[in-house]
Amino acid sequence: METGIAVLQLPESEARRAPEGDGGNESVDGDAMSRNPFAGLVSHLRASWLSGKTRPMEYRMAQLEALGRLLDDKKQEILEATASDLGKPPFEAELSEIFLCKNELRETLNNLSRWMKDEHVDKNLAMQLDSAFIRKDPYGVVLIIAPWNYPIQLCLAPLIGAIAAGNCVIVKPSEVSKKTERIVAEALPSYLDKDCFAVVTGGVSETTRLLENKFDYIFFTGSPPVGQIVMTAAAKHLTPVTLELGGKNPCYVSDTCDVTNVARRVAWGRFFNAGQTCVAPDYLLCTIEMQEKLVPALRKAIDDFYGPNPRESPDFGRIVSDKQFRRLRALLCSGRVALGGQTDEAERYIGEAWGHSHLHPCMEHISAPTVLVDVQPSDPIMQEEIFGPILPIVVVTNMDEAIDFINSRERPLALYAFSSDDKVVNQVLERTSSGGFCGNDTLTHMTLTSLPFGGIGNSGLGMYHGKFSFDTFSHHRGCLKRGMGWEPLNAPRYPPYSQQKFGVVRAAAKVTHKNDCTLL
Ligand code: NAD
Q1: Domains and CATH numbers, the chain
Q2: Catalytic site positions
Q3: How open is the CA angle 164-169-173, to the nearest 5 degrees?
Q4: Single pTM value for the model
Q5: Taking CB atoms and a 6 Å cutoff, what residues make up the pocket around ligand 1?
Q6: Whose Cα sits closest to atom 6 in ligand 1?
Q7: pLDDT at position 392, please?
Q8: What is the rounded distance in angstroms from the CA atom of residue 47 to the CA atom of residue 51?
Q9: pLDDT tens, 215-244?
Q10: Ligand 1 atom closest to 453 (CA)
């Protein structure tokens, strides 16, 4: 995919606005284009937004329904593209890229008319004759920047919220997942209104230029360091942001649990999409006794899921790039390899299929599902988000130590706690802080459209999914509409002031404490 503006057939006048009959100015405009190649695109979308076209509910519904058709029509292409980019098994691709987006679409289409309604709010005595309400206004022109690990879902799920809220949108998919980037760039403009929705492709330099423009909202999904770059660029224009970032998600396993079930649920969460999932359990915290029990249970789970040779399993994904593969391999010098990568290589081997196949080079990268035991907090693997199929176990003496460990680190996007004792799960929930929480399972909390999804602190800012997406992309505009008459009722607030007038104003506008006794 060539980088640059991929879609929106800009009218010539917008793309290169050369004043009539003055060829000399063309170079001036050319200079402007090279200085800010996306200015024309952004201003075209802003003009569309200002025209009010995206505001009617019927328009929004029609665009959302078109997205649904895109997902149906392009399903096979999406499965092939994600298989090529990430070796994504079709089951995982259909579930995580298509099914979850369709759920978001259905939830939005079912509820949009209700969500869009003005929300009438409580009034004080002085305003009983007036109308006070929250209007859900679109922000305007929104930029959505997506990563490569769920390259369809992480473009489309926020896009659904942005369309539902009545915005115009530029989507910037990841340049790393090339085949999927191409689908997004080619398909979106053929299903959505080109005057209001566009795709910009490219990597760091294109995104940097894009971010120079003033947007009304930026929704970014990616790594914390790039999140900082995006937030800094947004700050120049005072643009509000949602940052969906990553980090290390702890998973505490108490001594009282069904070890087989824990192992299956953890292994699924860790090795889904070859571990390249922002909410994957990043490391386990448990006692030495539990570690002893978990290793054989994890071995059994991995064997049940992927067979004795995961490299041959159609259900185990691939590492996206050379860069990621090398980064992961370097992390293996932590603790001791208990499972995975054994074959004929040295103990720190991660299965590497340098074959002669016709696959995309990245397809030849496989990291075997790997479990590291006796990992120290100071080990390299505990210093960064793993984002691959490696599961370290850090030994703690009890739950209190696990909680202290969690609280001494950056606040994670997801936190998991396993125990047959509900009190233990509740303790972990109550004494920690994280973007989301799931007791006795992994990943599944993010599949509910009724739960907000987002990080806190280093793992992000803001939330989305279901109605939370609609709210994220809507400005909640506080509105009061008063009548023209009844002027004597306003007299107490006008000068000349007096204590008596203040008493009247206070009585009419006071918020009463619920414990105040009205008889006194
Ligand atoms: P990334 O931050 O490298 O890239 C994300 C996007 O930002 C891409 O579109 C990329 O082109 C762009 N980008 C990269 N560098 C940039 C720069 N210097 N200036 C401007 N734009 C730039 O992230 P990634 O490697 O694509 O994805 C992995 C990260 O994303 C992990 O940290 C993961 O946890 C996180 N993630 C978070 C969520 C979530 O929902 N919270 C979901 C998926 C992934």
Answers
A1: 45-245+466-475 (3.40.605.10), 250-454 (3.40.309.10), 487-520 (no CATH)
A2: 244, 278
A3: 110
A4: 0.92
A5: 145-149, 154, 172, 174-176, 203-204, 207-208, 221-223, 226, 229, 244-246, 278, 385, 387, 413, 455, 460
A6: 147
A7: 97
A8: 6
A9: 999 999 999 999 999 999 999 999 999 999
A10: 40
